[in-house]
Amino acid sequence: MDVPEQHASQSDTLVENDSFLIGESIAYKNLEIFPIVRSGKTESQKYRILSEVIKGQDVVLEETGNVNLLSISNNTKDYIFILAGDIVKGGRQDRTIENDIIIPPYTKKVPLESYCVESGRWQKRGQEEVHEFSDNTKVLSSRDLKLASRYSKDQSAVWQKVSEKQYKLNKNLAEMKGENVDVRSPQSETSLQLTLENKELEDVTKEFKNNLNNLNDFSENSIGFAYAINGQFYGMDIYHSRELFAKLQAKLFDAVIAEAISEYEKDISFVPVNREDLYVLIQRMLSANVRETKINEHTMERMFEGDQGVMFETVEITQRKQWVRKNYIFKEDYKSATEQKNQEMIYIR
After folding, report:
1. Contact between residue 230 and residue 314 where contact means Cβ atoms under 8 Å apart
2. What's the average model confidence in pLDDT over 73-81?
3. How far apart are CA 106 and CA 109, in angstroms?
4. Number of Cα atoms under 13 Å in the Cβ half of residue 51
5. CA distances from 188 to 90, 124, 129, 255 (A)
6. pTM, to two decimals
């Protein structure tokens, strides 16, 4: 998985045997999104995603009695790809799934490692089922939450980051809308899922989408994206299949926008990031220590850990034996390799 030393043009190879192009950024306020485009066509295993199958009886996702372990049964002939960070709503508490995982057809009671993204509740909520989960519309919406659940594997840190997320959203949405905002739901004040369903947040999210030109057509020529907030790279998500990315992009972009809103600062000035810096970051990360973990009979995870961040590579290990997703999470203290004095400052109001 080599990154060439010379990386001045868009025709560089970012990942072994796969040619990628990094497009010009789409930007609004403090958020910059860079499309990642593959050169040429590839064949991939077709997957359904959790939000397609969780309603009805295509799958049964249920409690096990172990707070950090769920169980899923696939009643279809299809392979299902579940995203690390997927939030499932209902049960005794809303959960987020720890790892990317591939669920093969007609399999029963497959264990899913998970973390609570809600605290204090351990009973039925409204009309939801208490033993099963019936909705998946959101994913984790901050790099701190992603690192706490997938990297640190720390339930206490997940709860803390949910609380911090709610505080930041309250503060910044009030600033943006000029009125008091409380994203905590009366149904469950600690639920991240219900926070992400908040109407004020949805209104500002729509504003971002309306001003991020071409965002709705992103999947037509892209298999992923990188994003930066306040002039700092936060993450990059690449999929082997354009079809899979297209299915996931709506909730991925909602999460990124929610993160940008939570990190918004009025009158902030920052240097726009340089897409060429991505090559430097990836090169350093791919030279870092790698650890392999078998998630289930169909899924393996490779984790590359470096000073600038961590990359999770999800590999399908029984059929095509190919990578499915590459997810980069850059650390908070990363500083751009580009000298700020040579770039024009952007002011956000």
Report:
1. no
2. 97
3. 10
4. 15
5. 11, 11, 15, 20
6. 0.90
